[in-house]
Specification:
The structure holds two protein chains of two kinds. Chain A is 28% helix and 23% strand. By secondary structure, chain A is of the alpha/beta class. In chain A, the strands form two sheets. In chain A, strands 5, 6, 7, 8, 9, 10, 11, 12 and 13 form a nine-stranded mixed β-sheet that branches. A seven-stranded mixed β-sheet of chain A has the order 3-2-1-4-14-15-16, covered by helices on one side. In chain A, helix 8 links the parallel strand 12 and strand 13. The radius of gyration of chain A is 22 Å and the shape is globular. Chain B is of the alpha/beta class. Chains A and B meet through helix 2 and helix 9 of A and helix 8 of B.
């Protein structure tokens, strides 16, 4: 009887430990993305949040914490632009919801209404250390819809969602043109349509704000979300490659005093002064993206060129239409690190710098007390092809290991 | 006039100097040399002369001819030029939509030697490549094995045997790619196999007619280019490069190869890890594995894995890799070996797969694929460990001629990308500068 009670007591303690998610991650090297790497570092986790970070010599690991060890520890990786979850691995009509082309401008399409939290590519990216995913509607229409930010966990969108409406996906250049005789058929037409829509949204927003509570105009979902753009609450995510199209995007941002983020931006290296002057961040194309079409002039070195110029930079996995169906930001950052970025800069481009551009740096992107306990663990240099992701922690829960 | 003739004189001097430079043995001294044929040599020496390897060995133990031009390669890694067993560089196309089976179509007739993809391939260390038509047909045409020499016509890139035959295989496919909604294309897997069996049976009949004619022109059947190519397959002279992903489709290939006794390289083999013993036992020429970043993109690639190469190798099958460029980037071909090692393949076998295994699959093992005296001087100079993401291909040599030099700005543009890197017209080879040593 006594034994039984003791056992059940132990069981309760174990449960409590698990419930509170008390974990100590000890790494031979801990890259925090918030200062110098820590040799023999410890990250204490409690209740899904980071409690403390520092050298093992200064941190006493409480006895009831589960200890996890790794050679290298980094913040959970952030994929700054993806379509995974709306786009699935099968590449069949039933798992491709990233692009709807019945109309050129559909800012009312919400990413949360199409995200499949159980999509195997979400699990795959998680196993490669990605804990936060900025995903949503794809390039391919003038305004293709909304994007959102999720954690790569959960069985449902409700469990996964982090920022339900993050940005509005806009595509300029050839890829944003409509098929056949529909508009927009040219670059100039696209810009004219976008300007007209933003003018309507500003008008709608000012009417809405001015109207008394019982006299609000009829809700227009398209103008409502663009109204939030006008109010600078959310940015336009402008997919663009050619230098002249980048300048067109900056022109729109200036005219309407709205926030934009450049997405793709193959030729950004040609117009760095203008990008910098506009204080715009760039979510650069995957380093290994295929050169072709509008993106024919992309370079392995653009990430480092922009970084040297002081332009805020994140690296994306991007949009893939065939095989592979998604890229992995870990590998894209690795190749950028091999082509001019320092290790710390490349890691930042998929952690803290990505978090800043996405507006979530108060929660994720670095290993600092008070932030979400999202971590990735490796058995060597994270960027080396032959290293492995040995564990992933999201909100304090150990969620996966790379399948070897 | 005077100036012009002086310039011509200088030019001829330069040409003579270039010829002379080529005529001297070249010795690359001090590098780590991964010969593939034997243990890795630290502080090695590679001596080449007139396009061939003369000697490979340890510094101090290897004779460097007195007249050799020495190149300091300390701190570098030298290994054989990479062999890409499945690529679509050169912008060629094979069969059209008129029929699912077109053995008469040759990639030879549509390859563009000025395509920038070729420059990217040599920037990735690829010296020999199997250029193929696509996989949208049961049989999409004849493939071509090329040496990526610094030349601008297809004839100068070909590999010929002593009888003058052009080296190449034939491309076949099964699974979903070659299934189409409308006849004459097959609408199912079983129909695909039936059409292929029918094709080979007709070729057997044709071969029999030719045999019975015994050289008598009157009795010969009308010349049939498709049948002629298939006879080469039946006679095991032309290897079938068979695109196949799913485990059951792989077994269908093995079944067909057994029935018609053709030599086959399994291409892609995404689910090969599910049937490794069957593949190893079947005696295929080899497995040419694709390594892609993530699974999926099509149903058949859903279980594609980094581990495939290692699993097949352990089962005893010959494993090589390919870029399937543009699916993966030729400049990053070495990633395939890196990711395979990540998933359990041994380092030695992965490097063998990138080189010698590919040579065997293309029947070129006597001339390339390893660094051994007497073989073609196809090699690459790397800045470090071939499996490291940080390593760069610094120079690529085909038959002793440097075809890529990262320190040359134009070559670097192709290696890294940037403004103008994708424009074919930029590809220009100044014959006077072919040998830039």
């Amino acid at each position: 009887m006594k034994t039984k009670m003791a056992l059940s007591f132990i069981f309760v303690v174990l449960l409590a430990t698990a419930a509170h998610g008390q974990v100590a991650v000890r790494g031979e090297t801990v890259y925090t993305s918030a200062g110098e790497p820590i040799k023999d570092g410890v990250v204490l986790i409690r209740g899904g949040k980071i409690e403390r970070v520092g050298p093992a010599s200064q941190i006493q690991i409480p006895s009831d914490y589960r200890v996890v060890t790794a050679k290298v520890v980094t913040p959970g990786l952030i994929d700054a632009r993806s379509v995974v979850g709306l786009a699935g691995a099968l590449n069949q009509p039933h798992d491709q919801d990233q692009l709807e082309t019945s109309s050129a401008m559909q800012p009312d399409l919400r990413a949360i209404d199409a995200y499949n939290a159980k999509e195997i590519l979400v699990g795959f990216l998680r196993s490669m250390g990605v804990t936060t995913l900025h995903t949503g509607h794809a390039p391919g229409a003038l305004i293709s819809g909304q994007t959102m930010i999720v954690k790569t966990r959960g069985e449902t969108i409700e469990q996964a969602v982090f920022v339900p409406a993050a940005m509005i996906a806009v595509t300029l250049g050839n890829n944003g043109l409509a098929q056949g005789s529909r508009s927009p058929g040219t670059r100039s037409k696209a810009i004219a349509m976008l300007r007209a829509e933003l003018i309507k949204a500003a008008d709608y927003q000012s009417k809405w704000d001015a109207a008394a509570a019982d006299k609000k105009p009829t809700r227009d979902l398209r103008l409502e979300i663009l109204g939030r753009v006008i109010k600078r609450e959310i940015p336009l995510l402008v997919n663009v490659h050619r230098a002249n199209d980048i300048l067109a995007a900056l022109r729109i941002a200036k005219e309407f005093n709205i926030r934009i983020v450049l997405d793709g931006a193959s030729e950004a290296y040609l117009v760095m002064d203008q990008i910098k002057a506009a204080s715009v961040g760039v979510i650069i194309h995957p380093t290994m993206a295929r050169a072709g079409g509008e993106a024919e002039n992309l370079s392995f070195e653009t990430a480092s060129t922009l970084r040297r110029a002081g332009i805020p930079l994140a690296i994306q996995s991007g949009y893939e239409g065939y095989v592979p169906k998604t890229r992995v930001v870990l590998f894209e950052a690795a190749l950028a690190a091999a082509n001019g970025l320092t290790f710390a800069e490349a890691l930042s481009a998929i952690t803290i710098d990505a978090a800043r551009i996405l507006g979530i740096a108060d929660r994720v992107g670095s290993l600092e007390a008070g932030k979400d306990a999202d971590l990735a663990m490796f058995d060597g240099d994270p960027f080396e092809y032959t290293s492995h992701v040995t564990g992933v922690i999201i909100d304090g829960q150990i969620v996966s290991q790379e399948v070897k | 006039m005077k100036l012009k003739s002086f310039a011509a004189f200088i030019f001829s001097l330069l040409l003579a100097a270039a010829a002379l430079a080529q005529d001297k043995p070249q010795a690359y001294v001090g590098a780590q040399i991964i010969t593939i044929a034997g243990p890795v040599i630290d502080n090695g020496v590679l001596v080449i002369h007139r396009g061939k390897i003369v000697a490979v060995g340890r510094e101090g133990l290897t004779v460097i001819p007195a007249d050799a031009q020495r190149h300091d390669a300390r701190g570098r890694v030298i290994m054989p030029g990479l062999i890409d067993t499945h690529s679509h560089i050169g912008g060629g196309s094979g069969a059209d939509s008129s029929s699912p089976i077109q053995p008469d179509v040759r990639i030879l007739d549509s390859f563009n030697p000025r395509d920038t993809s070729i420059k990217r391939a040599v920037a990735g260390g690829i010296t020999t490549v199997n250029v193929m038509p696509g996989s949208g047909h049961l049989l999409s045409g004849q493939t071509l094995y090329l040496k990526l020499r610094n030349k601008l016509t297809i004839d100068e890139l070909l590999i010929r045997d002593s009888a003058g035959n052009i080296a190449g295989g034939i491309k076949m496919a099964n699974g979903t790619n070659s299934i189409r909604p409308t006849p004459p294309s097959p609408g199912s897997r079983a129909k695909s196999a039936a059409l292929v069996r029918d094709m080979f049976n007709r070729a057997i009949d044709y071969r029999e007619k030719v045999r019975r004619a015994a050289g008598d022109k009157e009795k010969m059947p009308p010349r049939d280019l498709a049948m002629e190519a298939l006879i080469e397959v039946l006679d095991r002279k032309r290897v079938v490069h068979f695109h196949t992903h799913r485990h059951d489709d792989i077994l269908t290939v093995l079944r067909l190869a057994k029935e018609f006794n053709f030599r086959v390289v399994l291409q892609h083999v995404s689910e090969g890890w599910k049937v490794p013993d069957e593949i190893a036992k079947a005696g295929v020429v080899g497995c040419s594995v694709i390594v892609i970043d993530s699974p999926g993109g099509k149903i058949e690639a859903l279980e594609n894995s980094y581990k495939t190469g290692g699993v097949l190798d352990k089962a005893g099958a010959l494993v090589g890799f390919h870029t399937d460029d543009y699916i993966t980037d030729s400049r990053l071909f070495l990633r395939s070996a890196g990711l395979a090692v990540r998933a359990g393949m041994s380092r030695e076998r992965a490097l063998y797969a990138m080189t010698m295994a590919g040579a065997v699959m293309l029947d070129l093992q006597k001339q390339t694929g390893s660094l051994e005296a007497g073989k073609d001087a196809d090699f690459i100079i790397l800045s470090g460990d071939p499996l490291s993401v940080y390593t760069k291909v610094l120079e690529t040599y085909v038959e002793g001629i440097r075809v890529f030099d990262r320190s040359n700005p134009q070559d670097r543009l192709f290696a890294v990308g940037g403004y103008g890197a994708a424009r074919d017209q930029v590809v220009h080879i100044d014959e006077g500068e072919v040998d830039r040593r």
